[in-house]
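OP here, attaching both records as promised.
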Amino acid sequence: MLKKYLSNEKGFTMIEMMVVLIIIAVLIGGGIKFYKGYIENSQITKAKAQINVMQAALDAYYADNGRYPEYTNELLDAGIAHDDKTATTEIELEARDPWGQNYKYAVNNNVSGDKSCVVYTGYNNIQGQSGRIVAAESKNGKLLKDGARLTNDYQPDGVAN
């Protein structure tokens, strides 16, 4: 009687359980991939917004002074540069991008009258490739390029990698 009772018992076989677990694992794996992409896109959006704010402040400085700030002490007075930096065409800012690297600011106040500046991120591994996000560039106080792009070979005027 016990044998008849056990043979009629209904339930899932081991193979059915394994199939269900494999399906669940595939769904979770796909979800994690999309979630990581969502997080990375939000970091890029945040970097674009931060760079655009910094670029607007630099353009306002240009409107007041007729040139972009190019010396570290000018940026220190504004509270945005590290105090251990020396005067250079490429200045590392105190603000950090969403990947934890310092933003960089490059200026070219050349004698010919053309003055340009750009704020960009350091090199990062963004969406599987290494590069910088350059969100805005200004020339003579006017915004030239708006909207971030990922570039691997961007070099501001007069700045070597």
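Record two, same layout:
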Amino acid sequence: KQLGDTEESQQRIQEREKELQDLRQTADSLTRSAQAAVEDSERIFTELIRSFERRRSEVKELIRDQEKAEVSRAERLIEQLEQEIAELRRRDAELEQLSHTEDHIHFLQSYQSVCAPSGPGDLPRITVNPHFSFEAVRKHVSELKERLEDVCKGELVKISQTVEKVDILEPRTREDFLQYSCQLTLDPNTAHRRLRLSEGNREVTCVGQDQSYPDHPERFDSWAQVLCREGLSGRSYWEAEWRGGGMGLV
């Protein structure tokens, strides 16, 4: 008996040493995987930041180019208008001076020269847009910011959920599994008419009489089945109690 106990003890030591070796290897592998994930995340976020910096510069350049073009156009028109106004004032002064002359021949000769066009003609009438601004650009950029923030929030939730699923040890006991427990409720829109839901849609009973459920495209009509409302992903654990036979849980 002592020999058997010794062999059993040696076997247990070997099993524990094997478990210790596996655990160390798994921990080392996890560390390497985490480091690789951190480095990839840093690289990807750096690329994203650079990409946003380029887009920011592009938008800034677009705005500045349009600003320069419109300001340059306005300045040219301002210069032409100032020249036209100065010319009109000069002619007006000459006409005012001619109006006081008593030499009619001189008046007619001078009047024709004063009224003769001195250039290519007056500028066409200019209509200024008083509501011109870059407010629409600011609005679009703000909307882009909100959409990107929503996308980032949604993706960050997915990333967090994925990170939380990384486990070294496989659950073995009920206490281990309970950390993955989730509360499920049954979806009345999918329940077969021979199934009665109760207890806040957390209990289902197969009955012999059709229930007065409204029509729904997702309702089972062949097999007495019902789905849960919650969608599950990754490792999940739940417990169920049942009485009777002919029951299946998936």
